[in-house]
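Backbone shapes recur. Consider a single case.
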Amino acid sequence: MAKIPTIVAYAYRKKLGLDKIEPKPNLDHVSNLLYMLFGEKTSKDEVAALEAYMILTAEHGLNASTFAARVVASTQSDVYSAVIAAIGALKGPLDGGAPTGVNLYLNEVKQSTVSEVIIQKLLNGEKIMGFGHRVYKTKDPRAEALKVQFNSMDPKPDWADFTLNVEKETVRELQQLKPGRNLYANVEFYAAAIMKAIGIPDELFTSIFCCSRMVGWISHIKEQSNNNVIFRPNAHYKPL
């Protein structure tokens, strides 16, 4: 849990040709991550917002990456291999890559309108990133909590009102185009807004998600190891 944020920060700065920054023992987990990324002290609002995100996304049931970790752990492989399997799943755009897709969606809306972008995406069979959830058929409570954090950031980014308006318009359009589906902003929508407000680039969104989800993965791996039965689902073969 402590090493992953350090690795993320070191790798990012190396990619930019910058010197690595050693963690400070007197800083907490989130403050250290931001310090190692940017080399300067961040505001209390920024730390609080990212900390809220990392707490809310540390664990979320048997999602794809957690399932992958438990499958590998169930073979009595080591914890590093289980975590690597989880990272492989998290890397996918439908899991950990979702916040990055939110900013792509917002950029598309800037060049057009919410209605036009949504209709085109639905015609192409694409998802509206940042909206709807497999688990929540109502508002995502994590998104609601992050929205409060985002709105309390001071100073507010100049694009904040645009983001909030896009959320409202998107929900309204989806209610008309997909009545009864109850598609609202999910945690990724406000995760993207918060990380953008802090100055974290899109390419690091999944890595930051990894830093938070590491807590849940390790907990699941330990639980699996304490009462282990190997994952071995049955398969039904269909004749050609």
About this structure: The chain has eleven helices and no strands. The chain has a mean pLDDT of 93. Residues 1-42 form one domain.
